[in-house]
Amino acid sequence: MNQQHNTAALIYDWNERERTGPLLRRPPRFVDETIRDGLQSPSVRDPTIEQKMELLRYMDRLGIQCLNLGLPGAGTRAQEDVERLLRMIVEEKLNLTPNCAARTVAADITPIIDISQRVGVPIEVTAFIGSSPIRSYAEGWDTGRLVKHTRDAVQLIVKNGLPASFVTEDTTRSHPMTLDLLFRTAIDEGATRLVLCDTVGHATPDGLRNLLNFTKGLLRAMDVEDRVELDWHGHNDRGMALTLGLYAFEWGVHRVHGCGLGIGERVGNTSIDLLLLNLYLLGLLDSEQHDLSCLVEYVQKVSEYTGVPIHPSYPLSGRDAFRTATGVHAAAIIKAQKQGDTELEDRVYSSVPAAVFGRRQEIEIGHYSGKSNVVYWLREHGHEASEALVDKVFQAAKSQDHTLSTEEVEAIIAS
Question: What is the pLDDT at residue 106?
Answer without folding.
Answer: 97
